[in-house]
Amino acid sequence: MTITQLPSTHEGGRPSPPSGNLCRPVGFAEAIDVAGLVDSANGLIDRAVFTDRRLYDQEQARVFATSWLFLGHVDQLQKAGDFFTTFMGEDPVIVTKDKAGAIRAFLNSCRHRGARVLRADYGATRAFTCTYHGWSYDLEGKLISVPNETGYPQDSWDRAAWGLLEVAQLDTVLGLVFATWNPKAPPLLEQLGDMKWYMDAFLDRDSEGTTIVGGITKWVLKGNWKLAAEQFATDWYHVNMSHASALMVLSPTGRGPKADIINTPGRQYSDVRGNGAGFPTHPRSRFDAQPVHRYYDYEQLRSRLGDARVEGPMTTGHATVFPNFSYLPVNGSVRVWHPKGPDEMEVWAWTVLDKSMPEDVRNAQRLYNLRTFGPSGIFEQDDGENWSEIQAISHGWRTNTVPLNYQMGIGSERDDGLYPGSTSDLYSDAAGRRFYARWAELMNEPAWHEVGE
Amino acid sequence: MSDEGIVVARVEDVPDGEAIRIDAAVTGTVDAIAVFNDGGDFFALDDTCSHEKASLADGWIEDGVVECPLHAGKFCLKDGAVLSMPATRDVACHQVIIDGADIRIVPNPDRLQ
């Protein structure tokens, strides 16, 4: 697939909102030094990172405001005027296709009194009109209509200065749309680095690319968003314990998969940008849903993706692109963990399919994902139960002040010559340590919007 | 064949559920004219919404009504009568004649330049 970079704003052309005499006072959002809360070298995490409201607010300004964030799949937008809404951190955004066919993303908040200018989850429109007073914006975010416009001081009123705020950068990779508010963020492919090699194993199996099952499944979960993001980066460890009953139900014998499957070795990728992916390795790695298994030509996949990918990250496994985008290749599940306060997240999940799959195979893959992940998925419910359980007790003083253990596999990271970048054994907290190291690095660094131009 | 009115478009130019905008210079009117196709029935109204500056040809067409794309004011396609706030004034309507494959407009005499 070709990667198209569609910078929504051009260098130097970024309008800064009129601010008059407004200026937030020094110390208004005092940053907390998190160096003492994350000890990635020794694999220790202070539980305040999951519970503290001040850290949560700082995270919005320094992690979500600076990072590339997942918005959706390119197939959600077909024609000019098609749109969907999502969140970047807690910020509501509109993602749309403009008249020139470019994907654009805008803050979904009217510049007048701040209400959302679009309330629907998805659809098609010709303009974005605020339902409060009727300010209207076109598909390029330009303010095009202001009822009673003559009421504004005619010598100073500049309608062009009051368009919708646009993201600083937007790019697509492997059919996925990402954007960032950060004009200085390195290109998306640089943020992914070796991670893209692992993503290819899931999203580039088909030369035609991917598509999605219509509709996004959304649910609310008690739990800090990092619990989920971290697990998808680093945690194969929980599988045989947490998912024991699900694994048994799905196995032909009812007693669980064969020992050599359960005890298969594997690798876990991690990088200093906070990305992580883990996967069992097996020479006869297979897709679980039978019609999907029969559909694939594994020899052809080997020539397309190479043996290492086919025997590893192509099927069973987990991954997180820092900070809050995760996926499961064998299930075709991609999801974003939207933060909703320190104690709550919203999970938005898509089912991704190869474009070339015939209808019966698509249906089999959709049902397989539905049964395993998503709100009705038997594995997903195990995971949600764990995260909510952790969060529910974590505000207790004694509980909150006892450090958590992220020490598995310390020092085991290496370049194994087979899997790109740094990998450890499958059972490892390496990607978790790097996830929190990256989080702490961003939390302690004044963000682009704090340092000025 | 008819020689009444002005040929402004061909029927195939206006698919069902859509509208086109005819420049005022073509019809000699004070406003552009929006030509609508609602389920095979054709209608013509002044293009500019009577509430704020918006093109009704960009509006949403359904059940004999056009809804303004900006503020959702509604107008009857048959006679231009206003049907919904925030719009409060009617828009002028024009006669449409389907002449074979041609769409002809007879401009409302009150709206001629």
Summarize the structure in words.
The complex is a heterodimer of chains A (453) and B (113). Chain A has 16 helices and 22 strands. Chain A is α+β, with helices and mostly antiparallel strands and 453 residues long. Chain A folds into 2 domains: 68-170, Rieske [2Fe-2S] iron-sulphur domain (Rieske Iron-sulfur Protein, 3-layer Sandwich); 193-449, Naphthalene 1,2-dioxygenase Alpha Subunit, Chain A, domain 1 (Alpha-Beta Complex), CATH 3.90.380.10. In chain A, helix 5 (225-234) packs across helix 15. With 113 residues, chain B is mostly beta strands. Chain B has one domain (6-108): Rieske [2Fe-2S] iron-sulphur domain (Rieske Iron-sulfur Protein), CATH 2.102.10.10. Helices cover 4% and strands 40% of the residues of chain B. In chain B, strand 9 and strand 10 form a beta hairpin. The chains are: A alpha+beta (453), B mainly beta (113). Chains A and B meet through loops of A and loops of B.
Fold blueprint:
The complex is a heterodimer of chains A (453) and B (113).
Chain A: E1 38-39, E2 44-45, H1 48-51, H2 53-64, E3 69-73, E4 82-88, E5 91-97, E6 103-107, E7 122-124, E8 128-129, E9 136-137, E10 143-145, E11 169-173, E12 176-180, H3 188-192, H4 195-203, E13 210-212, E14 217-222, H5 225-234, H6 239-242, H7 244-250, H8 259-262, E15 266-270, E16 276-280, H9 290-295, H10 298-305, H11 307-310, E17 318-321, E18 325-328, E19 333-339, E20 344-354, H12 359-372, H13 378-393, H14 397-400, E21 404-405, E22 422-425, H15 430-443, H16 448-451
Antiparallel strand pairs in A: 1-2, 2-21, 3-12, 4-5, 4-7, 5-6, 8-9, 9-10, 11-12, 13-20, 14-20, 15-16, 15-22, 16-17, 17-18, 18-19, 19-20
Chain B: E1 6-10, E2 19-22, H1 24-27, E3 33-38, E4 41-46, E5 60-62, E6 65-67, E7 74-76, E8 82-84, E9 93-99, E10 102-106
Antiparallel strand pairs in B: 1-10, 2-3, 3-4, 4-9, 5-6, 6-7, 7-8, 9-10
